[in-house]
Structure formats: structure tokens, C-alpha cells
Amino acid sequence: MTTKSVITIERHIIEAERQYPEATGAFSNILSDVAFAAKMIAKEVRRAGLADILGYTGEVNVQGEDVKKLDEYAHEVIFKALDHTGHLCGMASEEVEDFIPIPDRFPTGKYCVLFDPLDGSSNIEANVSVGTIFSVHRKISDHERGCAEDCLQPGYKQIAAGYVVYGSSTMLVYTTGNGVHGFTLEPSIGEFLLSHPDIRIPSPGQRIFSANEGNYRNWSAGQRALVDHLKGVDGTNPKPFSARYIGSLVADFHRNLLYGGFFMYPADSKSPNGKLRLLYEAAPLAMIAEQAGGRASTGFTRINEIEPTSLHQRTPLYIGSAEYVELAEQFLAQDA
Ligand code: AHG
Ligand code: MN
Ligand code: MN
Ligand code: MN
């Protein structure tokens, strides 16, 4: 019986790294460590209703959000999977206000990892898909062990980006700049196995848009005109779009990656920079979208050219099928 070759994420990462002769294996180890953390988080997410892992911690994070126990748990799991490896010069997390240095008792390395430990956490009690998002940069500062400067880099300098979606199955999707590859967790052996090699966003993509229309009253004229057009209410669109909005960025984005369509979290009169965070939500997903033939924009400029000035800065986000993000930019031009 010829067995189909089973490619684990560890094998895939090692084979990808062979393309970089100077690679030292540190990079492979980081991605494998993130995959390990994802398995640990998936285990808790899958049994969230059974463990004492639901509900709030009672704290409020730097975002002004009530912290969920699972936000904190996922943060701890990722931090502890990476802090001792000697590959990192530091980290940044949605759940921690400042740059996270590597504890003095551990050696440092030449990469930094930024992450959203649990994305869509308001959905966890409702058993709706949630995710984890991560971004990897090279150390650039001359600080001995690493500092915030190493995290404050534009998206085009990322050397890897990825996400985990804890959905009907647990999938890890990542890119190192050579295409986008998806792995599905086989729980019976605890391995992420290659299930979606070389993901490309279909073009034309399915006519699906994602936006929280509860914010319509706060949108700009251009944004309202765009959504009116997508829905066919302005009489100029012979093929109106379908609306899908999960409320977990990773789950909405994952659908766009596989089916086409696009996701919007616009700026509005209450949130002039939108809601989503640049460094550990928009930029990593933008790298993936572009590597899969899509586009990621603020509505005016390419997400991955933004020069960051603070760890938790927000940005409007339009991401998915290139043709639909470009359509959005055309409508928003009237607001310029
Ligand atoms: P997080 O749970 O990491 O704070 O992110 C939540 C984000 C994102 O996942 C989602 O797209 C967006 O919040 C939904 O915001 P609204 O509820 O305002 O639509
Ligand atoms: Mn949050
Ligand atoms: Mn998030
Ligand atoms: Mn989060």
C-alpha cells in the first residue's frame, strides 16, 4: 500500500529554511515553537466550557478591553513557549502594554515575535471560531538584548507571519515570503499536517464582504457609498454581494483567503484609526494576503508600508481579494 506522504509543519518549515543557506535553524525553531503553543491553546479552546477558562479575569488591558481568562491563558502559553529558546530579542503582545524583554536568565537571539494571543475573544463564550495571529521580525536595534525598536518595523520587513484559526478544525496558516501554506491539526497524533499547500486567493473572488454595519451611522460618505454599492441599494451593482461577519478577524479573513471576498474595519467618527491593531493583526494578515495574491490597505495606502510609531497603534483595514480592495479604495477616494 503506497502511503500518501504526510508532511508535518516541522518538516515543511525545515524544507522551506533550506532555501536560505545562511539559515541557522533558529527561524524554524520559532515557527515550530509557535505551532506547539497553538496546540496547547487549541486544547483549552476545545474544552473552554469545561475548564475554569471562561469569563473575565477582572483586569482591563491596554486596549481598554475586559481581559478574558483565555486571552491571558493564550498569552502565557505563547510567552512561555518562546521566552527561553535563545532565538528572540523580545516580544510584543496585545495583552501587554510595553515591549516584553527576554528574562535575564535566558539568552537572547536575533528575532522578535509580535502576537495577538487570542483574536475574537468576545466570541469564545458563544463557541464561535477564534484565532491567534503572529508576526516575526529580525532584530534591528543595537540594544544589547532587544528593545521596542525591534518591534516597531513596517510590515514589508516581516520575515514570517501567520495565524491559527480554532474553528471546526484547528488550522495554522503561515508564510515566510514563499507562498502561503495551511496545516490542519490531526488531534489523534497532535501534529499539524499540510492540508492547503500554496494557497491563492481565488480571482475573481466570491462576492462576499465583511463589515460591522452597526457602525454605518459613524462611517464616512465614501464608506457608506461603498457598502450601498456592494448591497445593490444604489442601483449601480447588477450583482450584489453577500454579507458575512463572524466578529473574529481571523475567521473572517480565513474565509476570504479560501473563497475570495474581502473584510473591512473602516475608520469612523468614533474611531478615526479604526479598531484593529497594526503590528499584530493587520500587518501579519496583510503579508499573508499579499503572498496569496490579495491586497491589504488602509483604504488609501498599503498596510505594509506604514511606519509604526507605537506598539498598539490602530489602523483602518481593507483586506482580501485585490479587485475588491481596489474597489473600496475607489469609493473612499471621495473622502480624501
Ligand atoms: P481581539 O479579540 O483580539 O481583541 O480582536 C477583536 C477584533 C477582531 O477579531 C474582530 O474583527 C473585531 O474585533 C470585531 O469588532 P466589532 O465587535 O467592533 O465588530
Ligand atoms: Mn482583545
Ligand atoms: Mn484581535
Ligand atoms: Mn486578542
From TrEMBL:
Gene3D superfamilies: 3.40.190.80, Fructose-1,6-Bisphosphatase, subunit A, domain 1
A Gene Ontology molecular function term of the record: magnesium ion binding
Free-text remark on how the cofactor is bound: Binds 2 magnesium ions per subunit.
Residues reported in the UniProt entry to bind substrate: D119, G120, S121, S122, N212, Y245, K275
Residues that hold Mg(2+) 2 according to the record: D116, D119, E281
Pathway linked to the protein: Carbohydrate biosynthesis; Calvin cycle
Cofactor(s) of this protein: Mg(2+)
Protein name, as recorded: Fructose-1,6-bisphosphatase class 1
Species name: Longimicrobium terrae
